[in-house]
Design a protein that fits this description.
Helix content: over 70%
Strand content: under 5%
Radius of gyration: 25 Å
Order of helices and strands: HHHHHHHHHHH
Shape: flat
Distance between the termini: 83 Å
Number of domains: 2
Number of strands: 0
Largest sheet: none
Number of helices: 11
């Protein structure tokens, strides 16, 4: 399905908001589960946006900037995943792999900005030394304006201006290559979740992981709601058990401080 000029502009405007949020990390609307859903809403296919958001969010679950390592931009990847799936009718898993070049392009642009914006540092140092708060505040606004315009241009050109060449390129790809992108896109969520578990997984939570795997893999159900409810149940059990243990520990500490547990004073 073709993207209209209005939809292209709306995607560009949302890219400004999501892009600034990925730059500042305030509201986290740049995460794929949000950006895909909003992009799907703009394109009139909310179901596609939600499905693509879930898959792409899992792919980026374990990807985070660390030192000099910069993953593809999640906001652009989320928007372009929905755009590609919507305009070329490929599966969302395939669209994830096809959207990565756009996300990497945006991240390279941001990396360039990191270097270029260093020229403002002497100006800000001078403004700070002179207590010129107005001049000091203007520079961050200028930087954010440049970043916003960059996100708008990349998304608008990629989603609207280049949609015909992009659709023609996808149609010209052989079946085996499309299938390869589909397999890669399907593997990315598993890789992202595995990277997240490598950092966060604790031994005492392994039984819940195994139970979730069994429920998701071997029980036949028409939607994921039963698995989600089971997850909520165990999360509530763990939450209240942890809360009870903390309250009990606090009571023990309080008794120790008050001397009720015994000591030389009471002859025990």
């Amino acid at each position: 399905m073709a993207i209209t000029l209005t939809q292209g502009i709306m995607l560009g405007v949302f890219a400004i908001l999501a892009g600034l949020d990925s730059w500042l990390e305030v509201f986290y609307i740049f995460r794929p589960i949000i950006s895909c859903t909003v992009a799907g809403l703009i394109l009139g296919d909310l179901r596609l946006g939600i499905i693509a958001g879930g898959l792409t969010e899992l792919a980026f679950a374990g990807l985070t900037p660390a030192g000099g390592t910069q993953p593809p931009n999640p906001a652009v990847c989320g928007i372009m995943t929905v755009v590609i799936a919507h305009t070329t009718s490929v599966a969302p898993a395939t669209a994830i792999g096809l959207s990565l070049p756009f996300a990497m392009l945006m991240q390279y642009i941001l990396l360039m900005f990191y270097s270029v914006f260093s020229v403002f540092m002497p100006v800000m140092d001078k403004a700070a030394a002179e207590a010129d708060t107005k001049k000091f505040a203007r520079i961050p606004y200028l930087i954010m304006t440049i970043v916003s315009i960059s996100f708008f241009i990349v998304i608008f050109l990629s989603a609207y201006a280049a949609q015909a060449p992009m659709a023609a390129l996808v149609k010209a790809m052989p079946t085996w290559l499309i299938h390869g992108f589909e397999l890669a896109g399907g593997a990315l969520p598993a890789v992202g979740f595995a990277m997240l578990l490598k950092v966060l997984l604790r031994v005492e939570y392994v039984p819940y992981l195994l139970l979730g795997f069994v429920v998701a893999s071997f029980i036949n159900f028409s939607n994921v709601l039963p698995a989600a409810v089971i997850g909520i149940v165990f999360a509530m059990i763990e939450f209240f058990r942890d809360k009870k243990n903390k309250d009990l520990q606090a009571q023990i500490e309080e008794l120790k401080e008050s001397g009720v547990n015994g000591g030389e004073e009471d002859g025990i």
